[in-house]
Amino acid sequence: MNSVAIRLAALALFGLGCTAKAANLVGSEPCRACHPDLWSKFNRNAHFRTYPATHGEPVPNTGCEGCHGPGGDHVKHPSKTSIFAFSTHTPQEAAERCLTCHAEDLSRANVRRSEHTRAGVNCLSCHSIHSSAPETRLLVSDQRSLCYGCHPSVRAQFSMPFKHRVNEGFMSCTDCHNPHGTFAPTWRMANRPHMVDQRLLNEEACLGCHVDKRGPFVFEHTSVRVDGCETCHQPHGSPNPRMLNRPVVFTVCLECHNGSGSGRTGLGEPVPVSFHNLADPRFHNCIGCHVRIHGSNADPYLLR
Ligand code: HEC
Ligand code: HEC
Ligand code: HEC
Ligand code: HEC
Ligand code: HEC
Ligand code: HEC
Ligand code: HEC
Ligand code: HEC
Ligand code: HEC
Ligand code: HEC
């Protein structure tokens, strides 16, 4: 809000033909004298790009003043109150400051109503402008330690025998999640969003990598398309092969193919036809016959 006001004020003043001086801008050069440590490493910060290329009149919303606001008063009377000091503002106020520039991007379109924001986790819980390790998107620490720091139970899931190799560095949380919040998913009746990111055409994040599961198939397995991958798989890791929810495959299938619910026939998901003798161990290996479990282009029963 503050900065919008400042911007408007600046615009109004420019409109009246006044100079930048009237808006109290000094540029970033004067900060060097008293904050040399921050100043000297700032050229490695992504925000260095906001420095104006020319050395004429200071430009609003650039360099140090892009975040800390006009520095004219502060240079004359240095103190925490003569400039926008983040340490004297609430996390919400800080976030709004960042969003004066960072709200336009689609990937942060939901940031104000994300699970994180609603739980009081804000930009500066995860990002540090002046003291982040290099090459980390200005994160407080590397992404894995950052997320595990607040989500310790997830670490255990990625240590399961069958897992996505996040701990090994082959992929990261943000391959599937957007910590800035997401749109409601188009799968699973928009239930349980969990900030899972979407890929092209509103697809599940999983399909960004497992493209062979994308379809469309002539014969879809409705549960894959409508309910989503997590109906049968643990996305992080699982004690069961193929990261399945259950140790034995047929118990996954019988969760649905048991005659309850409301399937195409109106009588529930189809019960395996009568020749499926579940007392016979041969029929326990459902995927031994229904090999195209994610969808088939050849067989309505997903047999090939
Ligand atoms: C003449 C010396 C001087 C100059 C020039 C100067 N500062 Fe400061 N700055 C200070 C002092 C002194 C403080 C107060 C530190 C304190 O109270 O802990 C301060 C505090 C700050 C703070 C608040 C720090 C906090 O604890 O949150 C910010 C932000 C800041 N300066 C930014 C700037 C920027 C941006 C510029 C350039 C426009 C600038 N300063 C130029 C001396 C200066
Ligand atoms: C992208 C926004 C942004 C820009 C640009 C920026 N700062 Fe900061 N600054 C912050 C935030 C946020 C903090 C609070 C501490 C933190 O998160 O690192 C901060 C803290 C500070 C502090 C006090 C804390 C400390 O570490 O001593 C000073 C002084 C300061 N900034 C000066 C500057 C100067 C000088 C520049 C230009 C070279 C600058 N800032 C550019 C966002 C910014
Ligand atoms: C004056 C506008 C402005 C403000 C205010 C601003 N940023 Fe930025 N930010 C930028 C620009 C410009 C870039 C570079 C974008 C690019 O390279 O595409 C950037 C880049 C970033 C990046 C990416 C860094 C990287 O390595 O790619 C992060 C993270 C970021 N900003 C966080 C913040 C946070 C947190 C705040 C609030 C403390 C903030 N920004 C405030 C303009 C701003
Ligand atoms: C829960 C932690 C978390 C919070 C809260 C958070 N971020 Fe991020 N942000 C990240 C991570 C992790 C990345 C790196 C994503 C990557 O590597 O692809 C990132 C990347 C970015 C980037 C650069 C890449 C991009 O998406 O364009 C910007 C800019 C950014 N964040 C701004 C913000 C702003 C502004 C806020 C507050 C409104 C904020 N972030 C809050 C974790 C967070
Ligand atoms: C392969 C994709 C993928 C990766 C990588 C991933 N997640 Fe998830 N995560 C998901 C999906 C999908 C859900 C939703 C599960 C559901 O709805 O049953 C989820 C759920 C969650 C939840 C909420 C449910 C719970 O188990 O508490 C948290 C928290 C979470 N993930 C954190 C993380 C963190 C932290 C990382 C990185 C260390 C990470 N995730 C990496 C896909 C992923
Ligand atoms: C400062 C602590 C903090 C950090 C850092 C943090 N989170 Fe969170 N996260 C929370 C809180 C608090 C919630 C909301 C309460 C909850 O559901 O656990 C949350 C919620 C989530 C959820 C949704 C959980 C659900 O049940 O819907 C996901 C997914 C998630 N975080 C992923 C991440 C990822 C990925 C990172 C790293 C980029 C991260 N978090 C970093 C504190 C944090
Ligand atoms: C960034 C790419 C990527 C994303 C996104 C991704 N995966 Fe994976 N997945 C892999 C890779 C690579 C493997 C191979 C196993 C390994 O890493 O050792 C794998 C393995 C698997 C396996 C086990 C295969 C086996 O042979 O045991 C399953 C099941 C799986 N993923 C399901 C999912 C689901 C469900 C999602 C979405 C929640 C998802 N994946 C998202 C890359 C990805
Ligand atoms: C109806 C339950 C079910 C759903 C829903 C489901 N899968 Fe599977 N998936 C399985 C079973 C069962 C296997 C084991 C197949 C085998 O071992 O031959 C498997 C195996 C896999 C494998 C490893 C073997 C292979 O075929 O590559 C990957 C990767 C995978 N699934 C990804 C996904 C993705 C991505 C989604 C969401 C688009 C998804 N699954 C949805 C049941 C399901
Ligand atoms: C989340 C619920 C669910 C799970 C779990 C599930 N299915 Fe299905 N399955 C369905 C639904 C719904 C249909 C479509 C029924 C319809 O069109 O009326 C279907 C269709 C089928 C069909 C095609 C039958 C037909 O008449 O079109 C086969 C074969 C099948 N499933 C086998 C399996 C196997 C094998 C497993 C275990 C690996 C499994 N299903 C797990 C819900 C599920
Ligand atoms: C030995 C091979 C085999 C095994 C093992 C097997 N099926 Fe089948 N299943 C078939 C064949 C063949 C059909 C098609 C029957 C037809 O043409 O009417 C079928 C049909 C189905 C149908 C569709 C029924 C309908 O009326 O639409 C479902 C659902 C099904 N199976 C589920 C399962 C489940 C669940 C398992 C594991 C408990 C399983 N199948 C194990 C061969 C098998």
List the helices and strands and how they pair.
Layout: H1 2-15, H2 31-34, H3 36-41, H4 63-68, H5 72-76, H6 91-102, H7 115-118, H8 123-126, H9 143-150, H10 152-157, E1 162-163, E2 198-199, E3 203-204, H11 222-227, E4 237-238, H12 249-254, H13 286-289
Antiparallel strand pairs: 1-4, 2-3
Radius of gyration: 27 Å
Strand portion? under 5%
Task: Specify the helix fraction band.
Answer: 25-40%
The ligands bound in this entry are: heme C
Low-pLDDT windows of residues: 1-22
User: What global shape is seen?
Assistant: elongated
The largest sheet has its strands arranged as 1-4
Oligomeric category: single chain
Sheet with the most strands, sense and barrel status: 2 strands, antiparallel
Q: Which class do the helix and strand fractions yield?
A: mainly alpha
- What is the mean predicted local confidence, pLDDT? 85
Number of strands: 4
Series of H and E elements:
HHHHHHHHHHEEEHEHH
**How many alpha or pi helices?**
13
Give an overview in words.
With 304 residues, the chain is an all-alpha fold. Among the domains are: 2-88, no CATH class; 215-289, no CATH class. 28% of the residues lie in helices and 3% in strands. The strands form two sheets. Strands 1-4 form a two-stranded antiparallel ribbon. The longest helix is centred in the first third of the chain and has 14 residues, at 2-15. It is elongated. The N and C termini lie far apart (60 Å). Residues 1-22 have low confidence and may be disordered. One heme C is lined by residues 250, 253, 257, 270, 272-273, 276, 283, 285-286, 288-290, 301, 303.
